[in-house]
Amino acid sequence: MNLLEFVYARLEDEYYRNTSKFPGALDEWEMKRQLIALLFRRLEAVDGEWGCGHKAHEISQGLCEDTPIDSIPELRWMAWPSRKHSDFEDRWMPPGVRI
């Protein structure tokens, strides 16, 4: 499991746990998914300008060696609230955070 898969799995957990209980939960869930999509579109723009020209879907699949999924700070912060989950890996700690 890579960091993006972990983040998506936790979003799915959150979706099924909260959407029936809290009316605004679906909006928050969709917002987080859209933020991830925006992140990869931004990474695509940066990679196109300064890197090897990978598209967003290629970067999100781990096909860009210059942008390893597990090193993306924004994803690390999205995973941070789930750091006590058994699938969380210490290498996914956000920058500057120590255990």
Largest sheet: none
Task: Please give the domain count.
Answer: 1
Helix content bin:
40-55%
Question: In DSSP terms, counting alpha (H) and pi (I) runs of 4 or more, how many helices?
Answer: 4
Order of helices and strands: HHHH
Give the distance, in angstroms, between the N- and C-terminal Cα atoms: 21 Å
Rounded to the nearest angstrom, the radius of gyration is 14 Å
- How much of the residues is beta strand, in percent? under 5%
Low-confidence stretches: none
Assign the structural class, choosing from mainly alpha, mainly beta, alpha/beta, alpha+beta, or little secondary structure. Answer: mainly alpha
Question: What is the molecular shape?
Answer: globular
Overall number of strands: 0
Residue-averaged pLDDT: 91
SSE arrangement:
Elements: H1 3-18, H2 25-50, H3 56-60, H4 73-79
Description:
- The protein is mainly α and 99 residues long.
- It has one domain.
- It is built from four helices and no strands.
- The two termini are 21 Å apart.
What labels would you give this structure?
99 residues, mainly alpha, 55% helix, globular
Question: What would you say about this model in short?
Answer:
By secondary structure, the protein is mostly helical.
